[in-house]
Design brief:
The protein contains 29 helices and 29 strands. The protein has 784 residues and is α/β, with parallel strands linked by helices. Strand 1 (129-132) and strand 2 form a beta hairpin. It is globular and about 75 Å long.
Length: 784
Amino acid sequence: MAKTVHTGPIKLPKRPDPKLWVSKAPFGLGRIKPHHIRDTLKVAWDNRDNLPYAYRILTQGVCDGCALGVSGLYDQTLDGPHLCTTRLNVLRLNTMPAIKPAMLHSDIGELRKLDSAQLRKLGRLPYPLIRAKGERSFRRLSWDEALDRIAAKARTIDPKQLAFYLTARGITNESYYAAAKAARLIGTNNIDNASRICHSPSKTAMKRSVGVGASTCNYKDWIGTDVLVFWGSVAANNQPVSTKYMYAAKRKGTKIIVINPYREPAMEGYWIPSIPESALFGTKLADDFYQVNIGGDIAFMHGVMKIWFEMEEEQPGSAIDHSFVSEHANGYEALKAYVLEQRWELLEKSSGLTKERMKAFAVLLAAAKSGVFVWSMGLTQHRFGTDNISQVANLALLRGFLGREHCGLMPIRGHSGVQGSGEMGADPFSLPGGEFKGADIARIEEAWGFKLPEWQGDIVGVSLENALLPERHERKLKLFYTSGGNFIETMPDPDFVRRCLEAVDIRVHQDIMLNSSTLLDAQEEVIVLPAMTRYEQPGGGTSTSTERMVYFSPAIDGPRVEETRAEWQIYADLAARIKPELRELIAFEDAAAVRREMAVAAPDYDGVQHLQNRGDVFQWGGAWLCEDGICPTVDGKGNLLPIELPELRKPEGHFYATTRRGKQFNSMIYGEKDAFNDAGRYAVLMSAEDAAALRISEGDAVVVYNRSGTFHGRAKCEDIASGNIELYWPEGNSLFAKGVYEPQAGIPEYNASVVVERADTYHALKDTKYVEKRIEELETEPPE
């Protein structure tokens, strides 16, 4: 499939371009924007006790922040150094000393008074800990005692009652692989990872639409493409280094389009610290914004395709790449018939955009000879997330934006390690290099030397819910082993998740620090295992970027925390204790041995076994997947799929709510103010038009509620599509219903219909039937 290889970094223009400047005022004085210099100085101060080690991590290691893939200070896209505040904020996790014993072993009630940010600042976990139910503090135990206790429990329960979860907190491919193999050797297929709550629909949709589950192109393809579309993705906020690629694209004449309910200030203009011109005067990024309703993307894309088919009737070839479609896509006529049946009235109401706005975007794409579509959680975190992504693939296939330079489909990752999680098999539906089915099961059984569990494993949300099943149920979760993760701060309905976590017999937290989930009770005991960071692991480790670059990150010389262990070693050791008769099958001599086995088990990763030095990297699949339009499907063609318009229940006067990230890295919050709009963590972003209709002024106390929960905040008027509000994540998670998962990929639903009211109105009427009636309206309004 791979014919063309990545050609390496390119140079930026040397001369400035004042047409792209946001302001002539130097450094954006007087504007609400990130303060990169101040933030960098703060990070230096926070790491003052370990500055030489911090410097070596930044200059020798592979970034453990987002998945853009920066090795040291350099990447494969642009010449020159790259550094962003996201990476700097994560840095302290790697350099902080161990938690002081007096605090670590203090009364659990005192620890519970601290939020996760305060717990994080306490320091690293130094040695294994245990706290039995009813005990008021953690006590120390040895590694042998800890692993033997876990193994003893695992041997007494049905493997279906055991579940593993791995976050993407700097976790390496080696750890994902060892965990995937260990889980199956133990006998469970309940293993999941952080992509379940971010990009699982991307993989599912792309597999069915074009036969691949990863980005088909590179960041270099942004630079010089005719149109670069960000769909439900605020890359400037969540992947700040990407702004440098956007700058390069703008200098090449690329049009950048953002499709999002909120006119994101971070995508409007950005001061890029590593480009002197931009650091001084800022760079205008987005050329246009299409402010769709939350959940209105499918309708919007139907409208775009409907315009295309109408254009084709007037002038064949004016919108559709018929040569590409006839040779490389199935289902054209069925899709055309389905789209033409859609009514403009419904498409406008669902999308929130007029036919004229949809036409503007359709004409722009029709005139483009190349295009790259980038998306993130704005498309995936819906109960119809897979359909959202297949609809994007429909647009790309109809225009032939696949398998060639400056074209492609890119689910941009927010974690440095998560792309490799499913590719290494840490997923209930995946195995290394394939799926949990048929020929791939037989292939892996031969490679690993043991039979795999034959039953389908559960996604992590269902595993947690299974903790509340009756005692004798074969799937009642009794042992939950989580590597990182904080579910009461990431999943919908935190109170329900708390009950699930506390219902488990034994909960194991393998991590580098404490968080609020670690402090919850369990029915028998909580065991905490201290892990190494990726920079401490002997023999180094690898991670896979959004664009399928597999980077080697060496062990960095520096201080080590007492008894921490490499995560892949812990998984292998635990499996050997649970199944001692199979010990030899999971006995890895070192990290290099893990990589050698990965190369065999996951054929795309053949080459990972040769990565051993700082700067080593290769890209699996070549520069473009589906090169020349040839997809790895049964017939080599992509599939155009008629996508059903989702039902969006929102009575008049009610709102759609979704989530937004502020000054944070995933659920790790680093500041109480959003650097791009100055909003606090409990701000409710809404349009001025909607606020006026509700007699709400800027800063007024408001209550947002539905049957799932209630959120108390303050109104902040922003340029957001009317009828929509945004809340910060995870503070707003109480409004999202538990147990609502996308049926094909299992991602939780992070959107909801809600009521917004002035706080004084809500409190004045909450003891009447008024509130119950308004909630009932959300659920009984007949569909359009």
